[in-house]
Design a protein that fits this description.
260 residues, Rossmann fold, 4-stranded parallel β-sheet, 3-stranded parallel β-sheet, NmrA-like domain-containing protein
Length: 260
């Protein structure tokens, strides 16, 4: 039986990966700082081997024969380190870069009482292309697809690849309410809503360099050998209480603003 070890198995990405591989009858080892959490306990009940990890960053695996590594390319420094310093390990490592979360509050509309409609106030242009993924639901399927690919594959994983204008149109259709796109710069979002600059660095980078700017050799889901079947962004949104999605997004953004 094949074995997969997942670091951070109780988060959105890790949980999706764990449940996908459990459903495929792999031996699943889940590293988590809190094995007594409800999520960790649920994984254990599903058959995962839940292991407590310390507060320090887990070590990368040794360069063992038969070992394959699937790393989150969102942590760019990890990819750079593996490629520059761990040559043997790099030869058997694949990377996954997730698209923007469907639940990312920066790309959700706000109600504007003055104009009586929802507005997407974003620091990117209407034509800017954005990969969108429901990380909790879809990450596992893409990692499973990487198993069938050659090492050193660099996958941009997404459920839909849309322009910002298309994202606004989908929200309007799925929610049944009128919404519009308002292009603003990062300085205005910082001044009006107190969004920290470190949070706004991401959209600013995307606007200037594109979502995968600087990362070479990226492949898209359509380039993979197998077909990855996930819900489209529109189907995902239609199945949810969009007002609750907005509420959770506001709460998440407020927590970031207050922490900053």
């Amino acid at each position: 039986m094949k074995t997969i070890t997942i670091i951070g198995a109780t988060g959105n990405q890790g949980l999706s990966v764990a449940q996908t591989f459990l459903s495929q009858n792999w031996t699943v080892r889940c590293l988590t700082r809190n094995p007594s959490s409800p999520t960790a306990q649920s994984l254990a009940q599903q058959g995962a081997n839940v292991i407590k990890s310390g507060p320090e960053r887990p070590r990368l695996p040794e360069d063992r024969d038969g070992c394959r590594v699937y790393a989150d390319a969102g942590a760019a420094e990890v990819m750079e380190y593996i490629e520059a310093e761990r040559g043997e390990l790099a030869a058997k490592t694949s990377y996954i870069m997730l698209g923007a979360y469907a639940t990312n509050p920066l790309f959700m509309p706000r109600w504007n009482g003055e104009v009586r409609r929802y507005q997407f106030m974003v620091p990117v242009k209407r034509g800017q292309m954005m990969p969108v993924i429901a990380a909790r639901e879809s990450t596992g399927a893409f990692v499973a697809a990487l198993v069938g690919e050659e090492p050193r594959t660099r996958l941009l994983a997404y459920d839909a690849y849309l322009s910002m204008g298309e994202i606004v149109d989908i929200w309007s259709r799925a929610a049944g309410v009128e919404a519009e796109l308002v292009e603003v710069d990062c300085a205005e979002l910082n001044r009006r809503f107190g969004i920290p600059w470190e949070v706004l660095d991401g959209p600013a980078f995307i606007e200037e360099f594109g979502y995968t700017g600087g990362v070479e050799g990226i492949v898209h889901p359509s380039d993979l050998r197998g077909v990855v079947r996930t819900e489209s962004f529109e189907d995902w949104l239609r199945k949810r209480d969009w007002e609750e999605v907005l509420k959770e997004g506001r709460e998440e953004l407020e927590s970031v603003v207050h922490a900053g």
